[in-house]
Amino acid sequence: MTRPNVILITTDQQRYDSVGINGSKFIRTPNMDRIGMEGAVFRNAYCPNTVCTPSRVSIMTGQHLSRHGSYNIGTNPPEYRTFLSHILRREGYRTHHIGKAHWHPWGASNAETMKPDEEGTPFQDFAGFESAEVSVGHATWGIQGHYASWLKQQGAELGSFKLKRLFQQDYNETGEWDLPSKWHSGAWLAGRAIDFLKKQQKDRPFYLNLGFQDPHHPHVLPYDFVNRVHPNAVPVPEARPEDDRNIPEHIPHFRSGTLIDSRFNGRFEMAGNGKYAWGAYYSDEHKSRMTRAYYYSMVQLIDDQLGQILSALDDLGLTDRTLLVFTSDHGEMLGDHGIGQKGPLVYEGVTHIPLLMRYPHGFSSKQVDECVSLVDIAPTILDFAGVEDDIRRDGCSIKPRLQEGKPLARKGIRIEYKEEPDRIRCKCWVTEEWKLAVYSGESFGELYDRKRDPGEHCNLFYESDFQSVKSALMTELLSDMERSEPVNDRPSRV
């Protein structure tokens, strides 16, 4: 069997509707669209968690946070032996990472927060990878690591790039950045990726892991970037927050900026939600349109940079024998339901993410409507690479679905959230028809009819007519949790 090269590309905080091939007419993403047209477009792909580290560790391990333990940002990762990087390296792959990782806490000393030398020499033996070039942070607060070393080599003065904000009070920090596009973190990533591709040996497969910092806030653009989404073309949420029925107890806190002072917050400020009064922020239509336009324009910038990588694959003759996966760690609320950014939420804006796969030698182009999760990425890549091991994973390989059209073994996918072991915790079950969310120790929950209420404005969790549906979904959720429980060998009765 010829083993494929593997490129796994992860953006940060990118919504499903930010890709043209996913049905959005207001955005231009020809390179993301190309991956989907030449490969597989997943219509119901979901993140396993709605903040960075848990979801990113799930991508690398194929496991949910209830198994790998990285339950929030700021947590330490599990053993690298469960990481895709370690396994493929062990199997003979040349493994390299470029860009954002966020598998480790950024506020502590570890592999990600080490400073590279002035030459930007790649780290060795990084999180299971043979080598790595790392960036930390986002946009205006993301000039760190190997990216910063590269900027210095270009002659840049790191403290000289100023931000001109559009608004005085702006949680998204929307504005014009005094940084040329050629020095953007995505330009660095694309250039380093192309350099890596040019140096690969034909007789040894490679695994290249790429982590774009964008479109995570701050919502900023290089001053000379012109391929932008016009604010008037950006749709604003159709329904008003006050139109939502039977909302859970914690939701009003997102809108009023009081979540940090509520009983739901833990010892650290909740990811994406300090004293942010999102309700008032997104009720200002001008501010809402502008910050959304900058966000979607950041995606178009990524698409331009992605196009350089795709062209390099073509020029080097690597396209047909490379399994390319493009996705994001989670989405962004961006004003839906009067909420911004992320946190303990199960709404589509933050859970529904883009997922595109292409492998011309492996499967033909297709659309996949079944629900899939980011925990399915590692098992799928290992399956295509012909790797078998004894690591227990929550995810399932999608290879049989892509190659033979076989239906997936699950009825839905699971999403988990844990702010702290003694704070707001949630388990969610998503099928093509329904979405159920249960909160540990709480009387409230969520149930949405995805077909009749795609905007999730009518919570049916308390409705008597839907208790049988809720019970059936709860059983499916419990069955999925049991399906992935570890089971040791039992050689005798006693």
What's the helix and strand layout?
Blueprint: E1 5-11, H1 30-38, E2 40-46, H2 52-61, H3 65-68, H4 84-90, E3 94-100, E4 123-126, E5 129-135, H5 145-153, E6 163-165, E7 175-177, H6 185-198, E8 206-211, E9 220-222, H7 251-256, H8 278-283, H9 285-315, E10 322-328, H10 348-351, E11 355-358, E12 366-373, H11 377-384, H12 399-404, E13 413-418, E14 425-430, E15 434-439, E16 445-449, H13 467-483
Parallel strand pairs: 1-8, 1-10, 2-12, 3-5, 3-8, 7-9
Antiparallel strand pairs: 2-11, 4-5, 6-7, 10-11, 13-14, 14-15, 15-16
Briefly say what this structure is.
By secondary structure, the chain is α/β, with parallel strands linked by helices. The protein has helices spanning 30-38, 52-61, 65-68, 84-90, 145-153, 185-198, 251-256, 278-283, 285-315, 348-351, 377-384, 399-404, 467-483; strands at 5-11, 40-46, 94-100, 123-126, 129-135, 163-165, 175-177, 206-211, 220-222, 322-328, 355-358, 366-373, 413-418, 425-430, 434-439, 445-449. Strand 4 (123-126) and strand 5 form a beta hairpin.
Tell me what you see in this structure.
With 494 residues, this protein is α/β, with parallel strands linked by helices. 27% of the residues lie in helices and 18% in strands. It has 13 helices and 16 strands. The strands form three sheets. Strands 4-5-3-8-1-10-11-2-12 form a nine-stranded mixed β-sheet, sandwiched between helices. Strand 13 and strand 14 form a beta hairpin. Helix 6 packs parallel to helix 9. The chain starts with a strand and ends in an 11-residue tail after the last helix. The mean pLDDT is 95. This is Sulfatase.
